[in-house]
Amino acid sequence: MPLTAGTRRDPAWPGRVGLAGAALVLLWPLLVATEFKPWLLLEADVLRVTGRFVGSFLPPAFGADFLWMLARETWRTVAIATAGVALALLLAVPLTLAATRALSISALAGRMAAVPYAVRQVVRALLILLRSMPELVWALVFVRVVGLGPAAGVLAIALTYGGMLGKVYAEILESGDAQVTQTLLRNGSTRLQAFAYGLLPQNAAELTSYTVYRWECAIRSSVVLGFVGAGGLGQQMDSSMKMFAGGEVASMLLVFVALVALADRLSAALRRALG
């Protein structure tokens, strides 16, 4: 039967339009509170200032001394991110094992015992505390404790990302099929053995992908941390911006784009290897 105008009409469109309208009504007070006025970007004075600012980035800097400094600080930035994530893993993995209900032996009977339940809640509260403090705040603290330099950035990333990794790891493990893990626990396996042979194999690709993503985020975070004295390319970018050296800033931004692209390819390669 040929389609008519009535049969081609989507029967769900009134509800969708209503939801979109309700979303706009709810969003409007938020836009007002944040003084969101995008039309100001199209004013002549703003466009002139923006064009002058963007134009200062061209051409990128490629001097020999600058490129040597850029390579050194790029390596330092990658080292900050990698060391921070490595320490975060050392913190997150044991907290994940303690916070994952699927690895609870007492929960096999249906209800977790009082002491393991209390420990699990304490661990979850610790994970909330760690990830609720932005790495920038931790960096400001550690700059005053250990002084200026990459060590403050490493410690800041380790604490914040330890909380993030622990929380997401626990959710990933609990969302998987726990039947194999429970069978191992019922047959006398330890929690670590049940994790290694039950939960880890079926969730390895997702865990790896999220870890690489967090490493990518740590590289970006190191830029912000550098502005408070935590070393790396961020600190050099802060100095270049203060000196109005737009070409140097442009070169550093190109390096960050390359690092993020590298992390994306690494994540895809690891997922293929584990898939």
Task: Describe the protein.
This protein has helices at residues 5-8, 13-33, 44-55, 64-99, 114-132, 135-146, 150-175, 179-186, 191-226, 233-242, 246-274. With 275 residues, the chain is mainly alpha-helical. The chain has a single domain (64-274), classed as MetI-like fold (Orthogonal Bundle). Helix 4 (64-99) packs across helix 7, helix 5 crosses helix 7 (150-175) and helix 9 runs parallel beside helix 10. The model has no long low-confidence stretch (mean pLDDT 81).
Concise structural overview:
The protein has 275 residues and is mostly helical. Helices cover 77% and strands 0% of the residues. It contains 11 helices and no strands.
Mind telling me which CATH architecture this is? Orthogonal Bundle
Count of all domains: 1
CATH class: Mainly Alpha
Beta-strand percentage range: under 5%
Contiguous uncertain segments of 5+ residues: none
SS summary, helix count:
11
Main pleated-sheet profile: none
Distance between the termini: 46 Å
Mean pLDDT over the residues? 81
* Coarse shape: globular
Order of helices and strands: HHHHHHHHHHH
User: What's the number of extended β-strand segments?
Assistant: 0
CATH topology: MetI-like fold
Q: CATH superfamily, please? A: MetI-like
C-alpha-based Rg, rounded: 25 Å
What class, by secondary structure content? mainly alpha
Topology:
Elements: H1 5-8, H2 13-33, H3 44-55, H4 64-99, H5 114-132, H6 135-146, H7 150-175, H8 179-186, H9 191-226, H10 233-242, H11 246-274
Helix pairs in contact: 4-5, 4-7, 4-9, 5-7, 6-7, 7-9, 8-9, 9-10, 9-11, 10-11
